[in-house]
Amino acid sequence: MQGQLSRSRTPERKAELEAELALPPFPEALRYLWTAFRRIRSRNGGNGYGPTPISWADLDAFDRLSGLRLLPWEIEIIEVLDDAYFAARHNQEDDPQ
């Protein structure tokens, strides 16, 4: 999307793309969960055909080794983030712009 923004030829199209990229501020109270998700996701090696979902073993290892004791609702949020990651990858593969 950033590449499209730099290549947009008209101010109207540029404004349209900037509006798509605009995001609300990140909730600071949840930053630790985003950081945990990124740490777990970046260490998940995949299976040779691409990334694999975060497993219970990944979550357990993170919990034990990081010292951050995730509660069930926090694990659920990490699972939702992982599902969103795979949905975005799937959409990107279907529509490479």
Give a quick set of tags describing it.
single chain, 97 residues, mainly alpha, Phage_TAC_18
Task: Explain what this protein looks like in three dimensions.
This protein is an all-alpha fold. The chain has one domain (27-94). Helices cover 65% and strands 0% of the residues. The longest helix has 23 residues, at 72-94.
Give a short overview.
65% of the residues lie in helices and 0% in strands.
Helix content range of the residues, please? 55-70%
The rounded Rg comes to: 17 Å
Number of domains: 1
Order of helices and strands: HHHHH
* Strand residue percentage: under 5%
**Low-confidence spans:** none
Please tell me the overall pLDDT: 85
Total of helices: 5
Query: How far is the first residue's CA from the last residue's CA?
Result: 8 Å
Count all strands and give the number.
0
Helix-strand category: mainly alpha
Biggest β-sheet strands, sense, barrel: none
What is the global morphology?
A: extended
Topology:
Layout: H1 2-7, H2 11-21, H3 31-42, H4 56-66, H5 72-94
